[in-house]
Design a protein that fits this description.
Elements (H helix, E strand, L loop, with lengths): L6 H8 L5 E3 L7 H7 L3 E3 L8 H5 L2 E5 L6 H7 L4 E6 L14 H8 L19 H22 L5 E6 H8 L8 H4 L20 E4 L2 E5 L4 H10 L14 H6 L3 H9 L4 H10 L4 E3 L3 H5 L2 H6 L2 E3 L5 E3 L4 E2 L2 E2 L27 E4 L3 H13 L3 E6 L18 H6 L3 E5 L5 H13 L2 E4 L5 H4 L4 H7 L4 E6 L14 H8 L1 H4 L18 H22 L3 E6 H8 L1 H6 L12 E5 L6 E5 L3 H11 L10 H6 L1 H12 L4 H10 L3 E4 L10 H6 L2 E4 L8 E4 L23 H9 L3 H9 L8 H11 L13
Parallel strand pairs: 1-2, 3-4, 4-5, 13-14, 13-16, 14-15, 16-17, 17-18
Antiparallel strand pairs: 6-7, 7-8, 9-10, 11-12, 11-18, 19-20, 20-21, 22-23
Helix pairs in contact: 1-6, 5-7, 6-7, 6-22, 15-22, 20-23
């Protein structure tokens, strides 16, 4: 594998796999250094008769590889194979070319990037491919786990566009800030207005960002400012009222103006206000926190490289030495059809990262129990519906059952530990130390069940001086350089990452990768382990090429055009990108730009941007984005129309690949659109169709299933408020909603 999706093999190498890659003409670009770290490089071409193929558990190939994967699997039924391409092995876009901006356009990420009234803003760096790769890795590890347990292998047709939609910022996934939990068809066509969420304020030495979400956070901000009378009304306890105030943000900005970032961070933390300095990538890498975490490794040649995406049992899974061959034990039982169909998972995860990691395990067949508390509900339960359900929550918590449990009580803690004895996996993403305060830290869990696999995620990791900070994605983006990179070049205050749900979804996938890797290791050792993910290190890993080069995150384009251009229609845009002189020559020929042939180097094209943009916009003026993209793609130029979220389900690519399925929900009038597979395959069952639960909806059922508690015992647990079943009020609210009005689809259209 070469190109950006060579990162699939890099994840496997970081986890200790022997990864052999074949590169007849290797290069020393920063991207190649990052993707090939930890692998064994072979300069010859790969053939189907290679001795390495005969010993492989997994074979990954792009469409250009001269290897017959079907024959390999016929000869070795337990082999796991994957074909990797931009748009799949077949289908309406199979012959199209992609770049990061093209994937952003077709995934609807681009339509939400930028500021209202301005052109869509290409996200920085290579986020689309970087977020796609972990989706492929999780699919491979799930299939490998099944094969090592005695099941058949599997073949995947993995498309970068599929992975980008699933792993970056899926509009139909759990994404409260992208759609506010509402049907995507109700969103405006334009970009979000500036500073709408997670505002950024100038201070004495730069910028800081705040996240005032909960009532207690606002109250901390209010006290910090000296309790100004004009904001004393209880109405300001509501997020919606604070957003509507024309005076609040200017007042906070004035309060911050003469203070320094480090002081604001310290005072904010003291008052319980989520706040972070807006740093460059370099400032984060040079911070005491990054040093304490050993977040950056130095290779033998002096190259600096982010030190992996997760830790296992306290050890970093970074660019490792090539391992020795390791034999796995023979299978001891007939495995279930779904990769994780015999596993039990306790899910304490909240918001997006916590939802996604365990949900992926459920999609592969695991029995996932979402542990909930009436006193501390999951923030994603905040909904436009009183009963705590939304299309967003439904997407993030499908294939789970809900168990209401008071973990603060001794009896509740004991009941949870009884469940741990039966479980295979425990997932959480609380602030570091929270589980330990409950008496449920990793040491306690592993003492009770040595086979348990523990997955934890946090904003900045569980060690280092920033480990205790309140962590939200917007604050992590600010601290690691992404927020500064996500701006229009001509406006330094045009911060445009405010509604982006990143790195939440991809971090959840890396959590699931850690779980799958430990489950595979458990086949050999019989013991579990602990995998931990820091969102900040996921981000710097995605900008690893910039770390290698020593440049700012994302950097500037290295060729032109590399942008979205206005096309015929109402706020319609077409992305056009070139990556070489040959691309440029084909573009000039296609649009009849004879004089443009003089710009025959990237440097000349970058210098001539205004003239190039004017000529492209004139060519697009009477063409729709899709028509223009078809013409350009036929000429071998990477281009694409910018899609909105509501357009995805009917777009030919997604329809013909069967990417989406409609999942009816018993407590929602809207349809829920879910992705129909982890990665496209005919060898594994589709994810089950269990709808996301109401809080505590299966409490009695779970205790009976897992622990064999009889009805009398369950009633006693309820009477003692240890077990928290679905409340009658919540049920009545759900029933009232279903009886209230005409159902609509998830895109906002009447059924």
């Amino acid at each position: 594998m070469r190109g950006p999706l060579a990162m699939i093999g890099r994840y496997l190498a970081d986890l200790g796999a022997q990864v052999d890659t074949f590169a007849p003409d290797p290069d020393r670009s920063a991207e190649t250094i990052v993707a090939q770290a930890g692998k064994r490089i072979h300069v010859e071409a790969l053939t189907g008769t290679s001795a390495l193929i005969e010993r492989a558990h997994i074979v990954i190939a792009d469409r250009s590889a001269d290897i017959d994967l079907a024959t390999l699997r016929r000869d070795r039924p337990a082999l796991v194979t994957m074909t990797v391409s931009d748009f799949g092995e077949n289908g309406p876009l199979a012959d199209w070319r992609a770049t990061g901006p093209v994937l952003h356009a077709l995934s609807a990420v681009l339509s939400r990037s930028g500021i209202r009234g301005r052109e869509p803003l290409i996200p920085p760096g290579d986020l689309a491919y970087q977020c796609a790769a972990p989706q492929a890795v999780f699919a491979l590890l799930g299939a490998l786990y099944r094969a090592l347990g005695g099941g058949a292998g599997a073949h995947f047709d993995f498309a970068a566009l599929d992975g980008a939609v699933q792993g970056l910022d899926p509009g139909f996934g759990i994404n409260g800030s992208a759609t506010m939990g509402k049907p995507v068809g109700l969103l405006l066509r334009d970009r979000p207005r500036a500073g709408f969420q997670y505002p950024i304020m100038r201070c004495a030495d730069g910028y800081v960002r705040i996240c005032l979400l909960a009532k207690r956070q606002w109250r901390g901000m209010f006290r910090w400012m000296g309790e100004p009378e004009q904001f004393a009304s209880p109405d300001f306890d509501r997020t919606s009222h604070r957003y509507a105030s024309a005076d609040l943000l200017p007042y906070i900005a004035g309060f911050f103006a003469d203070k320094h970032r480090v002081d604001l961070e310290r005072e904010g933390q003291e008052h319980g206000v989520p706040i972070a300095s807006v740093l460059t990538l370099g400032e984060f890498l040079d911070s005491y926190h990054a040093a304490a975490r050993e977040a950056v490794a130095t290779l033998g040649d002096g190259t600096r490289l982010p030190n992996g995406f997760l830790t296992v049992d306290g050890e970093r899974m970074g660019p490792l030495p090539v391992p020795e061959d390791v034999a796995f034990p023979a299978a001891s039982a007939v495995p279930p059809l779904a990769p994780f169909g015999d596993l039990k998972v306790l899910d304490l995860g909240v918001i997006v990262v916590g939802a996604e990691g365990a949900r992926l395990l459920g999609d592969f067949g695991a029995d996932v129990i979402k542990i909930e508390s009436q006193a501390f509900p999951d923030g994603s339960r905040q909904s436009y519906l009183e009963h705590g359900m939304s299309v967003s929550f439904a997407a993030g918590h499908r294939n789970k059952r809900s168990l209401g449990l008071d973990l603060r009580s001794e009896a509740g803690r004991g009941l949870f530990l009884d469940l741990v004895k039966q479980a295979d996996v425990v997932c959480s993403n609380f602030k570091p130390g929270t589980m330990e305060k409950l008496g449920l830290g990793e040491a306690e869990l592993r003492a009770i069940n040595p086979r348990i696999v523990v997955s934890e995620s946090s904003a900045f990791g569980d060690t280092g001086p920033w480990s205790g900070r309140m962590g939200y994605g917007p604050l992590v983006r600010a601290s690691t350089g992404l927020t500064l990179a996500w701006r229009y070049p001509d406006d330094p205050q045009s911060f445009s990452d405010s509604i982006t749900v990143y790195p939440d979804h991809v971090a959840g996938r890396i959590c699931a990768i850690g779980v799958a890797a430990l489950l595979i290791r458990r086949l050999r050792t019989g013991l579990g382990g602990v995998a931990k993910v820091a969102q900040s290190e996921v981000m710097i890993g995605h900008f690893a090429a910039d770390v290698v080069r020593g440049t700012p995150a994302g950097g500037a384009p290295t060729d032109w055009p590399w942008a979205a251009y206005r096309s015929a229609g109402d706020d319609e845009w077409c992305v056009i990108t070139v990556e070489s002189d040959a691309d440029w020559a084909r573009l000039c020929d296609t649009i009849g730009y004879v004089e443009g042939t003089a710009f025959d180097t990237a440097a000349k094209r970058l210098a001539a941007r205004p003239a190039i943009d004017e000529r492209i916009e004139a060519w697009l003026a009477d063409r729709t984005p899709y028509d223009a993209a078809e013409i350009l793609q036929a000429a071998g130029i990477a281009a694409a129309p910018m899609l909105r979220l509501s357009e995805l389900p009917d777009f030919p690519y997604y329809r013909e690949r069967g990417f989406y399925r409609i999942e009816g929900h018993p407590w929602l009038q809207e349809d829920v659109f879910g992705d129909a597979y982890i990665a496209r395959t005919g060898d594994l069952p589709a994810p089950p169709l269990r709808p996301a639960p109401l809080s505590g909806e299966q409490s009695a059922e779970v205790i009976a299933d897992w622990l064999g508690v009889d009805p009398e015992g369950i009633d006693a647990l309820k009477d003692n408020a240890v077990l928290e079943p679905l409340t009658e009020l919540t049920r009545q609210q759900a029933e009232a909603h279903m009886a209230s009005r005409q159902p609509v689809t998830a895109t906002g259209r009447p059924k």
